[in-house]
Amino acid sequence: MCNFVFVEDLNETLNLGKKLSHKLNPQSIVLLQGPIGAGKTSFVQGIAKGLLISEDITSPTFALSHHYYSGKIPLIHLDLYRLENISSAKEIFFSEEEEAIQKQAILVVEWPELIEAVIDNFWKIEISYAKNYGRNYEIRDPKNSLTLS
Known about the structure:
- This protein has one domain (23-138): P-loop containing nucleotide triphosphate hydrolases (Rossmann fold, 3-Layer(aba) Sandwich), CATH 3.40.50.
- It is globular and about 40 Å long.
- It has helices at residues 10-21, 40-50, 86-103; strands at residues 2-7, 29-33, 65-68, 75-79, 106-110, 123-129, 135-140.
- The protein is built from 3 helices and 7 strands.
- By secondary structure, it is an alpha/beta fold.
- The model has no long low-confidence stretch (mean pLDDT 93).
- α3 (86-103) links the parallel β4 (75-79) and β5 (106-110).
């Protein structure tokens, strides 16, 4: 099952991320796809808000990953944008996945195109620009049973 959600602004993006956080469990993997500036990190900020994480959530584009442990479930935020090599992307993903398993964390991956084929059982969020304003979210859950209410 796929959910299609339109959001008008940053506040709705944060609220959608927060709502999704309540559907996630420790060791959930969320893959975020969308063009630059679509709001992937803002969506992760909403997830963190729902998890009661107190740290500021920033883009891990240059650091590759950020770890947040202050919430009710830890969050690992990974960004593979700068990686062009599949083996490098796999190496960092599997390392962060191992950390997520050990820490019982949720793992969110921006720009997952290089590693999606090697992952089972994940959430997939595709963000696109809406025609005049706002964003469209296409949300697929691993069990194809999601309802966002």
